[in-house]
Amino acid sequence: MSCIRTLLLVREPVLFAVTRKELLRFAVKCTSSQLQVLARCTQNVASCTPKTFHTSTWASMTKPTVWTNKNDKGKDSSNKALVTYDDLFEKAGKESKTKATFNKVLDVFCRKDIRRRGHVEFIYTALRKMPEFGVERDITVYNKILEIFPKEVFVPHNFIQRMFNHYPRQQECGVEVLEQMENYGVMPNTETKVLLIQIFGRKSHPVRKFQRILYWFPKFKHVNQYPVPDHLPVDPVDLSRICLQRIAADMDAKVTVYQMPSLEVSEDGQITTQSHIVGIQSPDQQCLLAKHNPERPVFLEGPFPLWLKETCVYYYILRADPLPPGEKEEERIDPERNFYYPMELDFDLERDLGDDLEYDVDEVEEGPVFALCMAGDGDQATLAKWISGLQWTNPVLGRTPVIFRLSSGLHELQTVTESDHNNVDEVLLNQKMKQ
Questions:
Q1: Angle at 316 (CA atoms; ends 313, 321), nearest 5 degrees
Q2: CA angle, corner 27, sides to 23 and 30, nearest 5?
Q3: Partners of 308 in the beta sheet?
Q4: What does the pLDDT average to over 120-132?
């Protein structure tokens, strides 16, 4: 009956004619009672009205939305563009990039929205902009960045949330703040702990990172015997002294300043600049140089780069070739030299049948290094002054030939011209023709 009723409700004339034919075929097979019901349905078809959707009065008053293409945007779309977080820091830092302007940007973001929408992206941007404002080592600024997180929102309330890493994106952002503090050597304080517990809870990844920092920072604080200061000295002599002490790694090594940077005015009125020359040598290196054969030359090589934080410096070494096998002398070690542990171990260890006795060890022998230095100019004339200064404490250098092996360093940068490129292309073509 429901199927017949739906067919009768069709309004199109063609479809209605088709349904009438189907009804006549269906009526031949029906009984008398079914035909009476079918007749009643056909009489009520005319009086049936199609049903409509029930809508409110407010929906009928509103205008339908018109969909527009993305490419057909007018000038209004440019005015409604979102301002990125990088622009906030750039606008605030136009006049001066200081701690006050950085804190001002943080206050503006916190007052902008109570829910702190987009706080994760803003914190990542703030961490990236901290070195530009000079606040990368300030613990108060890090605590203020942690205050941007909403409080008591990301705290897990049961063990299931705690087990499945509750709010992982926010926890990773909190760990990133602590990792930047660790990279710059900033020690978190009690305020940092209170903020992390309020934001993420006691058993969260940022709190565990905080506990690890508190455990390891005091242990490694005084391990380095040659610590690097937070702010490197501007004076090249002081900077060279710090670098040479770190390279030598010998407490008995002595740093000597052979020449201070100065300006000299000649009789002709020409001004010449004298660069600094700073060297270092230990008593053991002096003994090695005293035993060196004067007939064998020594080599002055460099410059070699050394990065100290964000500053690159260059140093030079005075060394010799390794001794030939016939001239080597094995020194006997006194057994009473050290009473705490033996200096030599002579064990006859038994080998099993499955032990592999054949193995290759690449042993590269290097010659002894007699001294190191740093100079403002890497030319041969400046380094010759260092050699002449070493002769006062090492008289053997006066009888030993010195060979300079200097490469292009900071002050001797070689630029490739167009003619050099053409010569290289010709060489490559000749090699291809030979092949």
A1: 145
A2: 135
A3: 311
A4: 93
Read off the tokens for 393.
Answer: 């404490």
Helix pair angle (85-92, 119-133), 10° resolution? 30
154, 167 in Cβ contact below 8 A?
A: yes
- Two structure tokens written together for 122: 């803003």
pLDDT tens column, 91-119 = 888 888 899 999 999 999 998 888 888 99
- Tokens 């017949």 belong to residue: 4
User: Would you give the DSSP letter of residue 376?
Assistant: S
Task: Note the pTM of the prediction, 2 decimals.
Answer: 0.60
Supply 12's token pair. Answer: 């199109």
Cβ neighbours for 131, distance < 8 A, ≥ 6 positions apart: none
Pairing of strands 402-406, 298-308: parallel
Q: What is the pLDDT of residue 421?
A: 43
**Is the per-residue pLDDT at 272 higher than 60?**
yes
Measured from the Cβ of residue 168, the count of other Cβ atoms closer than 10 Å reads: 11
Q: Which alpha helices (H) appear in 249-302, and where do they start and end?
A: 283-290
* Alpha carbon of residue 32 to chain centroid: 89
Would you say 89 and 103 are in contact if contact means Cβ atoms under 8 Å apart? no
Q: Measured between alpha carbons, how far is 132 from 236 in angstroms, rounded to an integer?
A: 25
Contact 385, 259 (CB under 8 A): yes
